[in-house]
Design brief:
CATH architecture of the largest domain: 3-Layer(aba) Sandwich
Strand content: 15-25%
Oligomer: single chain
Number of domains: 2
Largest sheet: 5 strands, parallel
Strand order of the largest sheet: 2-3-1-4-5
Helix content: 40-55%
Radius of gyration: 22 Å
Amino acid sequence: MRFVVVTGMAGSGKTAALKALEDLGFFCIDNLPVALLPKLAELSLFSREMVTKVAVGMDLRERSFVESFKSAFEELDSLGTRVEMVFLDSGDEILLNRFNETRRRHPLAKDHGTVYEGIVLERKLLEPIKEHADITIDTSSMSVHELKRTLWDYFKREAEEKTMQITFISFGFRNGFPRDVNLLFDARFLPNPYFISELKSFNGTDPRVFKFVFSTPEAEESFQKLRDLISYLIPQYQREGKAYLTVAVGCTGGKHRSVAFVERLADELSEGRKIRIVHRDMSGHDR
């Protein structure tokens, strides 16, 4: 029996996530009262020949969710039911725009409160639940189809058959930090190709920029130490059952030094691993 709880911020895509899981053969229920979760698990266990995968959408529309989820999950453990939690999140401004576009009322907005106040309160209330999630998905820049592909990639195989996906992100600090990163490193101590006239217009995937970034002994030593640290940490995360690991490397603009570091890390750590590269601030170069 595979039992999944989908939760997260209002407006982050829980309905779309449940539809995606339904397409994968999950029996889906939305907005189930938390007190009924153990009962649903019991029924599912009795009917496991007919229902082998269950997904439940739960959030703060059910007022006792935060107060009761811990005891409900402990009861599930006593039944021998392993629950996987998917937590969906988005940036505050993104959520605010989504509510404004749909003209929906935030479930926590008081009679005279604002949508933004509801978002802030909800984030605070859900923080302890987010800490228990098996996977957190930031849908800020995702389309419905991208969310579906992400969930399909995570759930299409049984847990023991999964290979942890490692995502390497390059970014520019001047554009803000990427969200939901496990490991973040700063490459701004390296000489900047931006100030070399013949390199400025290229990016870190160009052989000339790549060679410049690693031209000093300090750059080479730093890279090797970083590569060895990540290589050491990967199996530690895998032992904890983590399915996704996100490593971010930043420089000032996100086009030269961080890109070169990410490209080389992905290349040297790719053997036997599922690798994805995202150059956040170098448009059109994700792979």
